[in-house]
Amino acid sequence: VQLVESGGGWVQPGGSLRLSCATSGFNFGDYAIGWFRQAPGKERGGVSCFGNRDNSTYYTDSAQGRFTASSDSAKRTPYLQMNRLKPADSATYSCAALRSFFQCFDLASGRIGYTRATWGRGTQVTVSS
After folding, report:
1. What phi and psi, each to the nearest 5 degrees, are found at residue 89?
2. Are strands 123-127 and 91-98 parallel, antiparallel or unpaired?
């Protein structure tokens, strides 16, 4: 099982980035994909969840209205479109494959601190002027 993020970089406040998460080694359609982020000195936090079985979505308050999660099942690639970026969005963004949407939701929302998941190494996003 492998997940590899790409698409990070530097962007000015108000700009946009689209992150990708290339996946392999598991039955893509049966999993949910979570996006998480961690800034230096801070704990990892949830951003969004996308359920590949039924296209369910969840966004944390910080992402709601600005970020959009999607998935191309033919390419086995989830995406995170990030618009109206703020300096507070600067972090390393990681994708994770989880066995259910509800597991992703519980982890991303902070209801649980750990669940079984496969993680990518992350891609850095820097928002500054």
Report:
1. -85, -5
2. antiparallel
Please report, for the chain, how many H helices and E strands are present, in that order.
1, 11
Tokens (6 digits) for 7 = 């698409």
**Distance from the Cα of residue 82 to its chain's centroid:** 10
* Residue 86 DSSP one-character state: -
Give me the DSSP letters along 91-129: EEEEEEEES-HHHHHHHHTTS-S----EE---EEEEE--
pLDDT at position 36, please?
98
**Six-digit token string for 52:** 């590949």
pLDDT along the chain (129 residues), means of 10: 97 98 95 97 97 96 98 96 98 98 96 94 98
Query: Would you say 51 and 32 are in contact if contact means Cβ atoms under 8 Å apart?
Result: yes
Residue 108 backbone phi and psi in degrees, to 5:
-65, -35
71, burial (CB in 10 Å: exposed 0-12, middle 13-18, buried 19+): buried
CA distance linking residue 79 with residue 18, whole number of Å:
7
